[in-house]
Amino acid sequence: MTDAPLDWQVLARDGEARAGILRTRRGAIETPVFMPVGTLGTVKGVRFEELEAADLDAAIILGNTYHLWLRPGAEVVRACGGLHRFIGWERAILTDSGGFQVFSLSDMRRVAEEGVEFRSHVDGRLCFLSPEVSMEVQATLGSDIVMALDECPPGQTAHAQARASLELTARWAARSRARFDELQREGADLGRTGADGDLSGQQAIFGIVQGATHLDLRRESLARTIEVGFDGYAIGGLSVGEEKSLMYEVVEAIAPLMPSDAPRYLMGVGTPEDLVECVARGIDMFDCVIPTRNGRNGQAFTSRGKLNIKNARWASDTRPLDEACECAVCRRHTRAYLRHLFMAGEMLAAVLLSHHNLACFLDTMRRVRQSIRSDEFTRFRREFLVGINSGVE
């Protein structure tokens, strides 16, 4: 037994792309990995049995500290034995710190050195989130990977403002780490497991790199985050309004500088194209609400690009959403039927489209991993990008 909450091994490389195994206290996760977002303890429209089935087989999902803290509340989760028991999910969970959600409430919050005061979007009550509070809530949730509290500025933030945000994020990172360590010593982690081999059974914590699109600030933020010391490192504050080319530029410049012996996480990104492009730039972990959000709005992701199920051209089309897809939806249902469900306002439309979209994202990651291990990622990337830009027929 060691004090390590995670074990990370790179099994293969192809350029900057890495395929590896991330061992957590709740099992091994093959990387690069896409993590479905379960904001309120649910991946919207998808049952956990389906997430565990072979065509999805999600090894890790996300929970959102901000939303779960406000509703149902930390005390409810505590009374139910932690988030895993509360929602009935036995695989790994990563929780974000709540920072992104708080900072999106730009007209309802006040930022100070101590933390952020804001009005709840649920009932308007005054709330206060600090690094210490975020760590305490995440200990109660018992997630397997905890995120430090950061300040997330808009993507096009001016240099001076981005520097101030970076400085605050660096100070909050140190406070997050200190309170996290105290909580682990106190046994506050409700998700703790018995030691598994050489793992400690404790929570892990990731630090977050900020700096908007300013590469000098990103490098400084990374150095200061590494100085605090974390189990993994994330790039935050992208996909928040900046041009996609700028996002790729930041990832390409920063990811290779991140510690090679720790997992690298790009927060809140993105489309299948973004996943493949950022794997090529050295990223190991991703999350995004796009698969289920777009599914609820009638958009399906396919190997040939996006398909809008509302389009009248699919009204009598008996093909699956994607003839190259082996998910449960594509094996059983036609575009015509899915369009009928959506146009009739049937909730099953959102359920089936969300399932298919998650299958698309998760299968893309499976093929990425296989191509890296086979030393064929460069070819896979080229062919994949040609395919999704070819257009749905």
Chain-wise SSE layout:
Layout: E1 7-14, E2 17-24, E3 27-31, E4 33-36, H1 48-52, E5 60-64, H2 65-79, H3 83-87, E6 92-96, H4 99-103, E7 109-111, E8 116-119, E9 126-129, H5 131-141, E10 145-147, H6 159-186, E11 204-209, H7 215-228, E12 232-235, H8 244-254, E13 264-266, H9 272-279, E14 285-288, H10 290-296, E15 299-302, E16 305-308, H11 328-332, H12 335-343, H13 347-373, H14 377-388
What does this structure look like?
Helices cover 41% and strands 19% of the residues. It is an alpha/beta fold. It folds into 2 domains: 7-288, Alpha-Beta Barrel (TIM Barrel), CATH 3.20.20.105; 295-388, no CATH class. An 8-stranded parallel sheet has the order 4-14-13-12-11-10-6-5. Strands 1-2-3 form a 3-stranded antiparallel sheet. Strands 7-8-9 form a 3-stranded antiparallel sheet. The chain starts with 6 loop residues before the first strand and ends in a 5-residue tail after the last helix.
